[in-house]
Design goal:
heterodimer; A: 174 residues; alpha+beta; seven-stranded antiparallel β-sheet; 4 helices; 13% helix; globular; B: 366 residues; alpha/beta; FAD/NAD(P)-binding domain; 2 domains; seven-stranded mixed β-sheet; 9 helices; 19 strands
């Protein structure tokens, strides 16, 4: 994971579970293709080698490249990713997201896993949180599904396009 | 004490490892008795509401309590080969006579004679000492999970979590799911000990993880009203200003120690192995200890993830069935070891690998 833990504040943050900078197992899609891709691409933030492969085994198209070793960090074949979000529902680490940049000029849709109560409902306004839980914008819930019928919901939220690199969670406000 | 029960294979502990050992051995035709101290089988699995890691073979992506159901279904599908005796504690092993003693509840006391035994007794939680840690409101993480996930009771309103291993991180997430606030997670080491993704998932909900921090003391009149935490330097000496955290629960997730009393009573060869978190029995590749009729599996053999415990249970059950003279599928043994090696191959498995190589022997002299 390349974690030295005493080099810099950034690494300290990373060692406490906050992604800083792209690294193997946690990369953004190639920008040009991403901007045109209807349905969006998957973003997986799983930069540590751990014995876990459901993202790859649940992927219906092979877009999460099949692992050679179960400890591999995920790699994405963007030609194959349809943005179906099955991995979002399946990942035990809640580390998979799908971001569609084609929703509007300034807006994007993020599909993220959600396992808290109360569940958001379609059309609701939610607070969008960054990787340390700060509220960075409002968002509108576009869809709520439970693809695997196992209590992990996948929530689609319309968010400001400029924040697609930051927003990774939501807070339901009643 | 007259009553004595007889069985081919005695499995002590009905958790992840024990149930897999029982299923494997019964699948080969053994008559198995499982002794479980809790009111129901499943061990720690029944408290795990999160989805498991690993591969399909270890039920990855399935929630822990569902895995307990899957294992019990497998056992039930084998007919009456397996008897599970719950609310029963094995209280001792008498090597001269070759029997175990067991106590059901506090009423019934009896002896068990078994041809072979798998000890899958799991682990006990550690605590760290600090002033006022005897006030009501200081819990082990296992107790918090039992209260919440088995009995549906939240332990309090605001929690200080001590320890950022997988248990501390997962229980913090489960507390948050139950609507309980987490004031902070403190961790003495310079990085989280559990999986990074477990940390990321609570960080983005706004839960702070304070690395190189420890609890200094708890305070409160009759119950916990707060805690004092402080930063540590790289030699684990306190530095900086102490900070007060308001909370009504302090949850300790500072590690586990293998439960090994029965191995000591059986005079099995033991080693203190820090990487495996305590004294553990030496074992061969079949998980057999130096005692020819006693196998080990799961956390009792060294603290590890439940996925590894289940595979170890399979290996021990397979080998014990073979030792009983039953026909077993020889290829399974290799497959199980391949799975174990894969589970231990990652960064987090490095410590485990370092421990296992100290206690794994080539074989026992006949």
């Amino acid at each position: 994971m390349g974690c030295t833990c005493n080099s810099s504040d950034k690494e300290k943050l990373f060692c406490s579970g906050v992604l800083v900078d792209n690294r193997p197992g946690a990369v953004l899609p190639p920008q040009d293709a991403w901007e045109k891709k209807k349905g969006g691409y998957v973003i997986i933030e799983c930069p540590q080698r751990i014995p876990c492969n459901p993202c790859a085994t649940s992927c219906p198209t092979g877009a999460v490249v099949p692992f050679v070793d179960i400890n591999d960090v995920p790699a994405i074949d963007y030609d194959k990713c349809t943005g179906c979000a099955l991995c979002v529902a399946k990942c035990p680490g809640l580390a998979c997201f799908v971001v569609d940049l084609t929703y509007g000029a300034d807006e994007a849709v993020i599909k993220l896993p959600y396992e808290l109560e109360p569940k958001p409902v379609k059309g609701a306004r939610v607070k969008c949180l960054n990787r340390v839980g700060d509220e960075v914008s409002d968002g509108e819930v576009f869809a709520v599904t439970e693809p695997l019928k196992d209590h992990t919901t996948v929530v689609s939220v319309v968010i400001p396009k400029k924040l697609v690199g930051e927003i990774r969670a939501i807070k339901v406000v009643c | 004490m007259k009553k004595m029960i007889d069985t081919d294979l005695l499995v002590i502990g009905g958790g992840a490892a024990g149930l897999c050992a029982a299923a494997e051995a019964a699948g080969a035709g053994a008559r198995v008795t499982v002794i479980e101290s809790d009111l129901h089988a499943g061990g720690q699995l029944v408290k795990q509401t999160h989805k498991f890691f690993g591969s399909k073979d270890e039920y990855a992506g399935t929630r822990g309590f569902k895995i307990a159901d899957i294992l019990l279904d497998e056992i039930n599908s084998l007919g009456d080969k397996v008897e599970i005796r719950t609310n029963t504690t094995v209280t001792g092993y008498y090597p001269e006579e070759g029997f175990f003693t067991a106590m059901k509840g506090e009423e019934e006391y009896y002896r068990i004679k078994a041809k072979k035994t798998v000890v899958a007794t799991g682990a006990q939680e550690r605590l760290i000492p600090f002033p006022n840690n005897d006030l009501p409101g200081v819990y082990g993480a296992g107790a918090v999970q039992t209260l919440m996930n088995v009995y549906g009771v939240v332990p309090g309103k605001k929690v200080l979590m001590v320890g950022a291993g997988n248990i501390g991180l997962i229980v913090s997430y489960q507390l948050r799911q139950a609507g309980v606030e987490i004031a902070a997670v403190v961790e003495a080491m310079p990085k989280v000990g559990g999986y990074w993704v477990h940390a990321a998932k609570i960080r983005r909900l706004g839960i702070p993880i304070l690395l190189r921090h420890t609890i200094v003391e708890a305070f409160g009149d009759k119950v916990i009203e707060g805690a004092v935490i402080q930063e540590l330097d790289d030699k684990f000496s306190l530095i900086g200003e102490p900070r007060t955290i308001e909370c009504d629960v302090i949850c300790m997730a500072v590690g586990l120690t293998p439960t090994t009393e029965l191995f000591w009573q059986a005079d099995a060869r033991m080693l203190y192995c820090p990487q495996l978190c305590g004294h553990v029995p030496y074992r061969d590749e079949t998980m057999r200890t130096s005692h020819p009729d006693i196998w080990v599996a799961g956390d009792a053999s060294g603290i590890e993830e439940a996925s590894a415990a289940m595979v170890e249970g399979r290996i021990a059950g397979h080998s014990a069935a073979k030792a009983l003279g039953l026909p077993v599928r020889e290829e399974s043994f290799k497959e199980y070891w391949t799975r174990l090696d894969h589970l231990r191959a990652g960064e987090v498995g490095e410590k485990i690998r370092g421990g296992i190589c100290q206690v794994l022997v080539d074989g026992w002299e006949a």
